[in-house]
Write a structure and sequence with these properties.
Largest sheet: 6 strands, parallel
Shape: globular
Helix content: 25-40%
Number of strands: 21
Structural class: alpha/beta
Distance between the termini: 53 Å
Number of helices: 14
Low-confidence stretches: none
Bound molecules: 5'-deoxyadenosine, iron/sulfur cluster
């Protein structure tokens, strides 16, 4: 629904640039040294990408950065609402800053992200966390300069949590965490309303960035030497449905991957309901697109999938996987997300998830115990199984996947892969860590100067989650 999409106007963005200047001169007069900001990020890559924009704006305003909350003049928590555990951590960590704030009243404590977009959370912060100065929602990240200026100059707390939807702010500065690996959001929001999930309520409806904006950012990343570029969206398969003219995600991949350069494209997350054969064929045929499919199935049982409002069956999911395997063979790596203990799920139904895990042959899984989210349909459903029993089910699943991961790793033994060397390894002091196209990690002994380059590495000794390898000249 293009009508809902509102691109933040040039005028609004210019107003924010004026505020950037105002904050900059204000902090120069207030502090003799460059003040430090600490941005703490929870949750998914979309949040990581938002934090990189927040840091981009802060850098322009004259802030330096620190990981140490207790030496920062500005602490921003970018929060996640997807599970209760993540929320509890935020409350704990924010609460731990109370003393610091009371001793240092000039410090600004700010909260943003998905949690803040829920009314009951904002209310709790307002009432019980009085030392928090600034709270802003997911739709107004671009207004940070103005909000920060207000927080710095007024003695009042600032809450900016509009329930507007469909905003896209282009052209914000980005301070990336990594200089060879980049996140590139291609769309925002979600329309799927899976019955357990809070995301559609806190991130709004799906809206795609214009192809020209994505292409411009992509070309810039390639020219700056970024080697792994991950396209982000809650459901990348529905990219472009709201654009005029429409453009499919497969078409986007084909266009981007035809741009010259030494890089690899990844994407996440795909939804099985909208994943097309065309997308799998595009993955198979475009050399620069990594052969890694992150396709969450959540449950292997059709009754539970129906209750989850996922819009596909186990059989449909498997038909997609089998087609992908047919096209890409051993080159393909699969990962998935699973929820254990959805309300009313029986052990027999959970066993269908285990059998699907066996059939899938994933290299890794992201497994979660169901977490009740206020305001979602699943929160109203009967949930008789205890947390302890669900934990035992989860443990069973993890043990099973451990065997499968080890088996998948064995398949790679003796093969040589073009790998991106992304950092230091964990197997020993002189080990480096590299990622294959299929997202398998190979560690090998090598010179640190290789970090940030592609190298051919032979997989020699598969372990459970990584493989030991040797660099090939
Ligand atoms: N409880 C547990 N896991 C959840 N996820 C989303 N919502 C919930 C919830 N309420 C998981 C899904 C999703 C991943 C990002 O988080 O598996 O794919
Ligand atoms: Fe949540 Fe489902 Fe949307 Fe993923 S697709 S963000 S699980 S509602």
């Amino acid at each position: 629904m293009a009508v809902n999409t509102r691109r933040v106007s040039e005028e609004e963005l210019n107003t924010q640039k004026e505020y950037e200047k105002k904050v900059s001169s204000l902090i120069q007069t207030r502090y003799s040294n460059k003040p430090l900001a600490c941005v703490v990020t929870y949750g998914c890559q979309q949040n990581v990408a938002d934090s990189e924009k927040i840091k981009g704006m802060l850098e322009i305003m004259g802030y330096g950065f620190t990981e140490d909350r207790l030496s920062a003049k500005l602490v921003i928590f970018n929060t996640c609402a997807v599970r209760e555990h993540a929320e509890d951590r935020v409350f704990g960590n924010v609460g731990a800053l109370k003393k610091y704030k009371l001793k240092n009243p000039d410090v600004i404590i700010a909260l943003c992200g998905c949690m803040m977009q829920q009314e009951h959370i904002a209310k709790r912060i307002k009432e019980s966390f009085q030392f928090v100065d600034l709270v802003f929602g997911t739709h107004v990240v671009h207004k940070l300069p103005e909000l920060l200026y207000t927080a710095l100059t007024r003695r009042k707390r600032v809450f900016e949590l509009p329930d507007i939807d469909g905003v896209i702010a282009e052209g914000l500065p980005v301070k990336r965490d990594n200089d060879s690996k980049a996140w590139l959001p291609i769309m925002y929001g979600c329309n799927n309303f899976c019955s357990y999930c809070v995301v559609p309520y806190v991130r709004g409806r799906e809206r795609s960035r214009e192809f020209s904006d994505i292409e411009k950012e992509f070309r810039k990343l390639v020219s700056q030497g970024y080697k792994e570029i991950t396209l982000l969206g809650q459901n990348v398969n529905s990219y472009g449905k709201d654009l005029n003219p429409k453009i499919s995600f497969s078409e986007l991949l084909r266009r981007l991957s035809s741009i010259d350069g030494d890089y690899r494209i990844r994407f996440m997350t795909s939804h099985p309901k909208d994943c097309t054969k065309e997308l799998l064929e595009t993955m198979a045929s475009c050399d620069r697109v990594a052969k890694h499919l992150h396709l969450p199935f959540q449950s292997g049982n059709n009754r539970i999938l129906g209750l989850m409002n996922r819009g596909y069956t186990r059989e449909h999911y498997l038909s997609l996987i089998n087609y992908a395997k047919e096209l890409m063979g051993d080159e393909l790596s699969i990962t998935s997300d699973i929820i254990v203990g959805f309300p009313g799920e029986t052990y027999e139904e959970f066993s269908d998830t285990k059998s699907l895990v066996e059939e899938l042959g994933a290299i890794g899984l992201f497994t979660f115990i169901y977490s009740k989210r206020e305001g979602t349909p699943a929160a109203e459903m009967d949930d008789p199984v205890s947390y302890e029993d669900k934990s035992l089910w989860l443990r069973e699943l993890l043990a099973l996947q451990e065997k499968i991961s080890a088996r998948q790793m064995q398949l790679h033994k003796g093969k040589t892969f073009k790998c991106f060397v992304y950092g230091k390894g964990k197997l020993g002091d002189n080990y480096l860590a590299a990622r294959t196209d299929g997202n398998v990690i190979i560690e090998f002994e090598g010179d640190e100067r290789l970090i940030g380059t592609f190298q051919n590495i032979k997989a020699t000794e598969p372990l459970t989650y990584v493989i030991k390898g040797e660099i090939q000249k």
